[in-house]
């Protein structure tokens, strides 16, 4: 047990060292090659910008986070219900898959103007764009999880005269949980991408908009400050869902901690 | 086609209604998998009657339709022609509780043994209606008692991956029995276990059958297993799948593994073996 703990701590230290090393290298290269701020600002400059202009950046960050979370919630609802539909019958799978693939292949930048046309610039197009990006990986994974249920297990359930809903709730959905959580990690970062794309194109608030305005006035440190914020938000949400995942789907890893809990 | 059988549902054929005294009845049943050129007849015309509380073993080579009979009686597949009756009614329409166990224990990895065995109580009426109220108390005690009977006392809070194959198979038997099924379907449940565990579980199975007395249909390759457990053994042959012999096992119960080395017992398994070998399709056909 102790060995496991220390190796985990070791991995965390290594991970932190990699991040710090990355920024240190960046700083050193900028200073060493005398790179101008307007091309690539140094990490220390970016952090200074973040701190001094925090009151101005803060509302944008909140806006982006809000849009992303709302979109993510809708994305999960839409993704799970479509995934259940697609995964529970061979017919639905064959019929809907081509349409879903086609839909997911469309570059989402192209649909932002359409959403703006329908709903006006601002929050709504950002949320809708994020939903269109986030729901697809969820659909695919939930459907896969449901479709790969062992036939023998289904026979056991059918022999008990279990209804389709019984099988779904007792076998299908719990089985699909690891797939679902794997897709959430992809979906949450995709939702961020969607929000920021829409903010960049058509909004007067949000990190995307902030970066757009900053770059048009050549305020490059502020642009990078926006990127750092996005990265940090993305990592934070990823961590939240990893924690939920390890609580819900610990059985896939067969750890003793899960068995105790 | 099976459609024709369904259409006949309202008016059962006269000979079928005439004798409804057996618990399970197969009336000139056939089953064909696939369509057109790829059609394979898994079971040629077969009739079989099983009395309530009996223990029947189906033995025979692979592809002789053993599992097909099991699935027909459970209602998982429909007969291509002929009729399957359970408790005097066409299969599927009857309110008979069925338990099933396979070679692969198929326990749910996210549930403890207790919750795995609880599953049928959550789904099968009349337990389903009482599930919310009794899950923590009465149901729990019943499961613990059944687990103890198969030698799994104290393991109810373990997850499947923490147990050995033999223990999982014991738990799988408990799951098949907890809802007091009138019909118990066993499809090579001990096939993946080592010799010693298998012999131990024969004893466990015999014990469970004597206390709960479900009607059991056991599919197996193991002639010793069939002779140890069953009251009656049906020997089947392949291509086409059919029953070629139906004999009563005379040994008194409870049977022990030691008995399986006595001359009578050995003679019985030898006779079964010869029946199966003699019925083997001529050279050229797959085993």
How are the elements arranged and paired?
The complex is a heterodimer of chains A (261) and B (287).
Chain A: H1 2-32, H2 43-52, H3 54-88, H4 90-105, H5 112-119, H6 123-147, H7 151-159, H8 164-202, H9 207-216, H10 220-248, H11 256-260
Chain B: H1 2-7, H2 14-18, E1 24-33, E2 40-50, E3 55-59, H3 66-74, E4 81-86, E5 89-90, E6 98-102, H4 113-123, H5 127-134, H6 138-149, H7 165-177, E7 183-187, H8 195-212, E8 215-220, H9 223-229, E9 232-237, E10 242-248, H10 263-278
Parallel strand pairs in B: 3-8, 3-9, 6-7, 7-8
Antiparallel strand pairs in B: 1-2, 1-4, 4-5, 9-10
Helix pairs in contact in B: 4-5, 4-6, 4-7, 7-8
- Oligomeric status: heterodimer
Secondary-structure element order of chain A, as H and E? HHHHHHHHHHH
Estimate percent helicity of chain A.
over 70%
Number of helices of chain A: 11
Largest sheet of chain B: 6 strands, mixed
Mean pLDDT rating of chain B = 85
Total beta strand runs of chain A: 0
Main sheet: strand order of chain B: 6-7-8-3-9-10
Strand count, sense and closure of the main sheet of chain A?
none
- CATH-scheme architecture of the largest domain in chain A: Orthogonal Bundle
Number of helices of chain B: 10
DSSP strand tally of chain B? 10
Helix content of chain B: 25-40%
Shape of chain A: globular
Measured between the Cα atoms of the first and last residue of chain B, the distance is 28 Å
Description of the molecule:
Chain A is mainly α. Chain A folds into two domains: 1-34; 41-260, MetI-like (MetI-like fold), CATH 1.10.3720.10. Chain A has eleven helices and no strands. In chain A, α3 (54-88) crosses α9. By secondary structure, chain B is α/β, with parallel strands linked by helices. Helix content of chain B is 37%, strand content 22%. Chain B has helices at residues 2-7, 14-18, 66-74, 113-123, 127-134, 138-149, 165-177, 195-212, 223-229, 263-278, and strands at 24-33, 40-50, 55-59, 81-86, 89-90, 98-102, 183-187, 215-220, 232-237, 242-248. In chain B, a hairpin with a 4-residue loop joins β9 (232-237) and β10. Chain B is globular. The chains are: A mainly alpha (261), B alpha/beta (287). The A-B interface holds A 150, 152-153, 155-162, 166, 170-171, 174-175, 177, 249, 251-252, 254, 258-259 and B 71, 74-76, 97-100, 102, 104, 106, 108-110, 119-120, 122-124, 158-159, 161-162, 175, 179, 185.
């Amino acid at each position: 047990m102790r060995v496991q703990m220390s190796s985990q701590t070791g991995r965390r230290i290594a991970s932190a060292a990699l991040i710090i090393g990355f920024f240190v290298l960046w700083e050193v290269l900028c200073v060493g090659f005398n790179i101008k701020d307007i091309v690539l600002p140094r990490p220390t400059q970016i952090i200074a910008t973040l701190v001094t202009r925090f009151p101005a950046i803060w509302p944008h960050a909140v806006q982006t986070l809000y849009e992303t979370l709302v979109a993510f919630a809708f994305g999960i609802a839409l993704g799970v219900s479509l995934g259940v539909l697609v995964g529970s019958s061979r017919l639905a799978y064959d019929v809907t898959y081509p349409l879903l693939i086609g839909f997911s292949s469309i570059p989402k930048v192209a649909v932002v103007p359409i959403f703006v046309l329908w709903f006006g610039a601002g929050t709504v197009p950002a949320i809708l764009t994020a939903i269109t990006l986030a729901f697809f990986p969820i659909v695919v994974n939930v459907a896969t999880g449901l479709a790969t249920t062992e036939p023998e297990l289904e026979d056991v359930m059918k022999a008990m005269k279990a209804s389709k809903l019984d099988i779904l709730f007792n076998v299908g959905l719990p089985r699909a949980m690891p797939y679902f959580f794997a897709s959430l990690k992809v979906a949450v970062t995709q939702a961020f991408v969607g929000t920021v794309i829409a903010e960049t194109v058509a909004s007067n608030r949000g990190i995307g908009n902030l970066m757009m305005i900053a770059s048009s006035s050549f305020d490059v440190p502020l642009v990078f400050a926006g990127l750092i914020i996005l990265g940090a938000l993305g990592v934070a949400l990823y961590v939240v869902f990893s924690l939920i995942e390890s609580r819900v789907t610990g059985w896939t890893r067969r750890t003793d901690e899960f068995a105790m809990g | 086609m099976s459609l024709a059988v369904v259409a006949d549902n309202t008016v059962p054929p006269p000979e079928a209604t005439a004798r409804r005294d057996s618990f399970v009845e197969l009336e000139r049943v056939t089953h064909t998998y696939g369509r057109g050129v790829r059609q394979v007849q898994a079971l040629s015309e077969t009739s079989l009657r099983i009395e309530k509380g009996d223990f029947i073993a189906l033995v025979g080579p692979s592809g002789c339709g053993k599992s097909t009979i099991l699935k027909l009686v459970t209602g998982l597949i429909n007969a291509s022609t002929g009729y399957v009756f359970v408790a005097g009614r066409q299969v599927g329409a009857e309110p008979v509780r069925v338990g099933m166990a396979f070679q692969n224990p198929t326990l749910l990895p996210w549930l403890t043994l207790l919750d795995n065995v609880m599953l049928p109580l959550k789904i099968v009426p009349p337990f389903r209606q009482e599930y919310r109220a009794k899950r923590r108390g009465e149901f729990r005690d019943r499961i613990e008692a059944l687990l103890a009977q198969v030698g799994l006392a104290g393991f109810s809070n373990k997850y499947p991956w923490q147990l050995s194959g033999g223990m999982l198979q014991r738990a799988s038997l408990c799951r098949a029995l907890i809802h007091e099924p009138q019909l118990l379907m066993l499809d090579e449940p001990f096939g993946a276990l080592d010799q010693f565990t298998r012999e131990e579980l024969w004893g466990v199975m015999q014990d469970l059958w004597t206390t709960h007395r479900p009607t059991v249909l056991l599919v197996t390759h193991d002639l010793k297993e069939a002779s140890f457990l069953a009251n009656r053994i049906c020997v089947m042959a392949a291509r086409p799948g059919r029953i070629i012999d139906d004999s009563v096992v005379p040994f008194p119960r409870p049977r022990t593994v030691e008995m399986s080395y006595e001359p009578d017992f050995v003679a019985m398994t030898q006779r079964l073996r010869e029946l199966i070998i003699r019925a083997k399709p001529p050279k050229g056909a797959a085993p």
